[in-house]
Amino acid sequence: MTWDVALILSVDGLANGAVYLLAGLGLVLIFSVTRVVFVPFGDVAAFAALSLAAFETGRTPPTIGLVLTLAILAVLAELWGLARRRDYARMPRAVVLWGLLPALPCLAAWAVAGRAMPAVVNIVVSIALVVPITPLIARIALQPIADASVLVLLIASLALHFLLSGLGLLFFGPEGSRTNPLASGALTLGNGFSISAQTLLMIASAIVLSGLFYLMFERTLTGKALRATAVNRVGARLVGIRPARTASLAYGGASLLAGLIGVLIAPVTTMYYDSGFIIGLKAFVAAIIGGLTSYPLTAVGALAVGLVESFASFWSGALKDVMVFGLLIPVLLLRSFLVTRVDEDEEEIDQ
């Protein structure tokens, strides 16, 4: 391997790592607040990419039907819960929150579809269209079992991935799509080495969004509420923070990140209805490196995953995924030696 090849692979690894960084941040955000390993995260990113592809080809994105279906189910679930508690006064609010608000981006998408609109409009609407998906799924399937064990929540999340994959096949079909580049041109460095503008955009987006992510958690009241819920759910509830509301914010923020990821990767790879699963798994490796709690370590893990994937694809394309997922073995072994074990009985006494 020459230095030129190593440099090319490093840049490609950084671009992949930027995607896994954003996805890893979304996974850590959801897990730290709700204890849910949200396996369908990558599916939401794939739906955003397919929605943008539909706009560019002049078609109405099938995501509209998916979102409206989930909204109807969420409204029914919320109304059923309120009826069981005889809380009829909150039913109109539930219809607005879980029915009308998710329908707004669907209405915007329907208005934009088939019309010659600027690329930025299609991108914004594509992202907005998938933002309600994660909160709606959480309301339907995860909120009723929010107090279950992490293992039960993981099994439910895995089942949701297969459900979303089936819905993706139903609404989008088996055909793949690729969008137009978000940025054209290239940056030429010494010795004729060049970096495409799309790659630079992916890396810059990850840096900027990570910075905004940090500022939100450190400087805003909402970010501090999310942090408080992640540290101690009972304590957060005692000071007036509603875990259900912060969970919805976490799901919404993660869904926004998934939409941005879908838009960023759509021009560089052909996306199918189930393409997001492998993205979510590799982001999960990065999140595991961060202990599913640390955002900086998750960022380091995402860059490591991207670089390992890039160099492994050069050595053996058939074994690159094996090498990436093999990173989990030393990480888990190291954590098993460093983390202090606490018996369940002692943990319950401390709480």
TrEMBL record:
Gene Ontology terms: biological process: amino acid transport
Annotated signal peptide: none
InterPro entries reported for this sequence: ABC_transp_permease, BCAA_transport_permease
Cellular compartment(s): Cell membrane
Residues annotated as transmembrane: 6-29, 61-83, 95-113, 119-138, 150-173, 193-217, 249-273, 279-306, 318-338
Principal cellular location given in the protein's record: membrane
Keywords: Amino-acid transport, Cell membrane, Membrane, Transmembrane, Transmembrane helix, Transport
Membrane topology: Multi-pass membrane protein
GO molecular function: transmembrane transporter activity
GO cellular component: plasma membrane
Membership in a protein family: Belongs to the binding-protein-dependent transport system permease family. LivHM subfamily.
Protein's name in the database: Branched-chain amino acid ABC transporter permease
Source organism per UniProt: Rhodoferax sediminis
Taxonomy of the source species: Bacteria, Pseudomonadati, Pseudomonadota, Betaproteobacteria, Burkholderiales
